[in-house]
Structures are given as structure tokens and as C-alpha cells.
């Protein structure tokens, strides 16, 4: 009889966490009886996930919202459905739960009575401690973490950040996210047809930097805009292509638009979200990340799989991948640091080949099946 696994997250689609969830489901859906539950219902679920995966949502469905008696008080509405979903989960007899995200997602998982529970932490609390409003105190968050068998940190820096900021709950482990190498290599073969500079003769094409990530404050895109404008004013032949959709919440898109208008930067282009970001990475001379904080960036590892040399701001996990700029360029997290690093590679084009060879050497640590097996051991006990 297959083990029954509940995998929970706030979103179905989005960024690195959602990629991790998808990769785990795709690796396991034939072996385990899997249910995915998101906070927000997403009607695109079965456009991507296989039909043998069950899908639930914690959000209050329309039939509850439309009921005049239930809708009389919004708090009653929420509690009424919460009780229903908790009862449903307990009746389904899950053997294990994987809660894919820290903060509110981990907090929400506390209410489910499932024999073995794991929660992931992707946030470096030394750089971005955001969970105080969720748990009320560091002590309360530590106590919440202790209700899980393990808290799975995606890098050593994440583990250190938790211990430094809220204390050690005693059950932290590090498991690196699996990277589906074959899938990346296959998708990267798809031609890119919407980047005008590709139509130029090869020797006339600009040095191409590619960045991939949602348009949120975390990604530091306003830093990148400022750095690009300074280099543009100095006459360098380059372009920056940013692949990423705007988020439904927050106002980072507005700040990006304002920075573009204020600086008049022309050589950085935000092309929006794309279903296949790998083909854009594949045409890059350099992959660049201007992030202010990260966990252990999935997209940077994906670029490494494609042998694209890396320029990454000094977030958690970066030195675990690049060392002290041994396998790629580690940049300070500020406009000047990004500007100087970009200027350096533009002034020294031979660095591209050097760091391409170094990341080809380093990418052997980026695995799929081995990392999947390491996580699977948690379920198998």
C-alpha cells in the first residue's frame, strides 16, 4: 500500500519553492499517494500536475462565501471552513506531511494531526527576519518548529540564520534542493525569438546579462537598474534581460517603473514572465542576480547546469556554490558593487571563458536523483 503524503504550500506556481514542490511531486507521484494543498486555490493546477495527484485548497471556496449564514461574519466563515478542512485532512489518513515554506505556511501546518511532519525554511533570518508578526515571538516560533520532526534548511547559511536570530530548535537539518538537470537541458534547446539583438551578427551583439526572478523587492532590481544606467552612460555595449512576472501583491513593479523613468536606462529590459526561462539563460554571456537576500537560489544553480558563468550578490548559499569568487563572481549587495563587477567583466572579456570553465567544473555538486533520495529518506524513516 502506498504511503499517503500531504504537501502544503501557499502557492501552486511562483518561484523556487514552487519549483521544488513540483520536482518532488513529479519524482514521487507514482511511488506515493500524494495530495498537494495550497492556501490559495489555483485552477491551473492540472494544466501542469499529473491527474493522479490530488489537489485541495485551504482558501474558503465560493459555496461557503455565497452562503448568507456563513458569510454573516468573516471570522466565522474562516473558522467554519477551517474546521471542515482539518476534519477532511485527518479523515484522509496521511502518513507524512511536507510543509514547503517557512512563516505562515509552516504555522498553518501546525493544526494538522499527521504522524510525521517536516517543514522547509528558505529564508536567511540574518538578512530577512520576517516571521515575528506570524508567531508573535522568537520563542513561539522555536516552539512551533519543535512540533515538526525536522526543519529542513536549504543551505548552511539558512540554518545558521535561524540559530542566530531565534535560537536553535534542535531539529534543523540541511538538504539541498534537487535540480532537474535533464529537464533544464532539454528546455534550453528551444529557440529564443523575442530578443532583437540575436538578429545581429555575432560580433556586433552586446554582452548579454540575463536575470530570472519574480518582480519583488527581494530581487534588488532597482540596484541593477542603477548599475546599468551608469555603465550605459559610459558607453559600454551590453544588455540586461530580466525574465520574471510581477507579483499579485506588493508594489515592486511600480518602484521598478519609477526607477526606469527616473534613470532613463535603456539597456535593461523587463520582458515579463515566461513559461520556459531556461532558453533565455542559455543565450546569456553571464547570469546575474542582484538579490538582497535569498535562501539558496535555485535559478542560479539552473544557470550553472547550462554552463553559464555566474555573477551573484553575496546572499546565503552563494558561497556554498561559488566559494570566494572561485567558481563565479560574488558581488556586494549594493549598486556600486554590482556596477563594479559588471564593469570588470565588460573590461575583461576573457573572464567569461575563465568562469565558464570554472562553473563547468563546479556543477558536479548540483544533482537531482541524489538530492531527491536524501529528501525521500525523511519519508521512509
UniProtKB/TrEMBL annotation:
Residues forming the Glycosyltransferase subfamily 4-like N-terminal domain are 15-182
**Which domain of life does the UniProt lineage start with?**
Bacteria
Give the transmembrane ranges.
none
**Any one GO molecular-function label of the UniProt entry:** glycosyltransferase activity
Give the Glycosyl transferase family domain ranges.
200-358
In terms of PANTHER family, this protein maps to:
GLYCOSYLTRANSFERASE
Name of the protein described by the UniProt record: Glycosyltransferase
User: What is the species of this protein?
Assistant: Pseudobutyrivibrio ruminis
Record lineage: Bacteria, Bacillati, Bacillota, Clostridia, Lachnospirales
Amino acid at each position: 500500500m502506498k504511503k499517503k503524503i500531504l504537501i502544503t504550500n501557499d502557492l501552486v506556481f511562483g518561484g523556487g519553492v514552487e519549483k521544488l514542490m513540483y520536482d518532488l511531486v513529479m519524482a514521487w507521484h507514482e511511488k506515493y499517494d500524494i495530495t498537494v494543498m495550497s492556501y490559495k486555490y489555483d485552477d491551473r493546477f492540472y494544466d501542469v500536475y499529473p491527474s493522479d495527484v490530488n489537489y485541495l485548497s485551504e482558501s474558503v471556496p465560493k459555496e461557503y462565501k455565497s452562503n448568507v449564514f456563513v458569510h454573516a461574519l468573516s471570522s466565522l466563515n474562516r473558522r467554519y471552513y477551517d474546521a471542515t478542512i482539518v476534519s477532511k485532512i485527518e479523515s484522509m489518513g496521511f502518513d507524512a506531511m511536507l510543509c514547503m515554506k517557512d512563516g505562515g505556511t509552516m504555522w498553518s501546518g501546525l493544526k494538522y494531526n499527521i504522524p510525521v511532519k517536516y517543514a522547509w525554511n528558505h529564508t536567511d533570518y540574518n538578512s530577512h527576519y520576517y516571521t515575528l508578526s506570524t508567531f508573535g515571538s522568537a520563542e513561539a516560533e522555536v516552539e512551533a518548529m519543535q512540533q515538526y520532526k525536522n526543519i529542513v534548511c536549504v543551505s548552511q547559511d539558512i540554518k545558521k540564520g535561524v540559530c542566530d536570530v531565534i535560537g536553535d530548535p534542535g531539529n534543523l537539518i540541511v538538504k539541498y534542493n534537487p535540480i532537474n538537470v535533464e529537464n533544464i537541458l532539454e528546455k534550453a534547446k528551444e529557440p529564443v525569438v523575442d530578443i532583437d539583438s540575436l538578429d545581429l551578427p555575432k560580433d556586433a551583439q552586446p554582452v548579454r546579462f540575463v536575470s530570472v526572478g519574480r518582480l519583488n523587492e527581494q530581487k534588488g532590481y532597482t540596484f541593477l537598474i542603477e548599475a546599468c544606467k551608469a555603465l550605459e552612460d559610459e558607453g559600454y555595449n551590453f544588455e540586461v534581460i530580466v525574465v520574471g512576472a510581477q507579483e499579485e501583491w506588493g508594489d515592486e513593479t511600480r518602484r521598478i517603473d519609477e526607477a526606469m523613468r527616473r534613470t532613463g536606462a535603456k539597456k535593461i529590459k523587463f520582458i515579463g514572465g515566461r513559461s520556459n526561462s531556461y532558453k533565455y539563460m542559455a543565450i546569456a554571456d553571464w547570469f546575474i542576480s542582484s538579490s538582497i537576500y535569498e535562501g539558496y537560489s535555485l535559478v542560479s544553480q539552473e544557470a550553472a547546469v547550462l554552463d553559464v558563468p555566474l555573477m551573484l550578490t553575496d546572499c546565503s548559499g552563494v558561497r556554498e556554490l561559488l566559494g570566494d569568487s572561485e567558481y563565479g563572481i560574488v558581488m556586494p549587495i549594493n549598486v556600486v558593487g554590482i556596477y563594479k563587477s559588471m564593469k570588470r567583466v565588460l573590461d575583461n572579456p576573457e573572464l567569461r571563458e575563465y568562469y565558464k570553465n570554472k562553473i563547468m567544473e563546479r556543477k558536479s555538486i548540483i544533482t537531482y536523483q541524489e538530492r531527491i533520495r536524501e529528501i525521500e529518506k525523511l519519508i521512509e524513516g
